[in-house]
Amino acid sequence: MTFNKLFAALALTAMLGAGAAQARTVGGVTFPDTVQQAGQTLELNGIGKRVFALIVDGYASALYVPKPAHTAEAILAEPGPKLLYTQFLHAASVNQIRNEYKSVYNSYCSNHACSAASKQTFDKILASVQPVKSGDTASYLIDDGNLTLSINGRTVVTAHDPEYVHGMLDSLLGAASPTAGYRNGLLGNN
């Protein structure tokens, strides 16, 4: 093969690969660039890692949406399913997980009016909490006001509560997010 043919082949390979989305890794967890959920291909919007006490990697999460966007408002307004997939990087007790959920929920509700129905959905999720070990997973599938929470691939909570679903996403992507780094990661702004 001549140098010109070799160069042309390398250039073509580079051009074809340049447009392809790449799986991304955070906290040692590699998230694929697309997933199939609710009969639709969802694209990786962003990934974030939650760190506790500045030294303990708690969990890594990926947000999948029909069309990636980089603001909370755009993602919240986008129709169609959304998937928040989380892998735990460290073991956590029931109380530790509940405290994390409560912290985010209370922060969100301090700035927004959370209804009694939303509180019932939140309490249902709190009741489903179980201790986790490193490598365990949680997925939150959100579609048309419905929430399906699965732990290690097993559904533990289903709820139809559009207000709660909107608030949950807003609490992770907006000002109530556990940390700015986590929020920016899920929004693909890092």
UniProtKB/TrEMBL annotation:
- Fetch the Pfam families from UniProt: Chalcone_3
Q: Which residue intervals define the domain Chalcone isomerase in the entry?
A: 23-188
**Which positions carry the signal peptide feature in this UniProt record?**
1-23
Q: Which InterPro entries match?
A: Chalcone_isomerase, Chalcone_isomerase_3-sand, Chalcone_isomerase_sf
* Keywords carried by this UniProt record: Isomerase, Signal
- Entry annotated with the keyword Isomerase: yes
Q: From the UniProt record, which GO molecular function terms apply?
A: isomerase activity
What name appears for this protein in its UniProt entry? Chalcone isomerase family protein
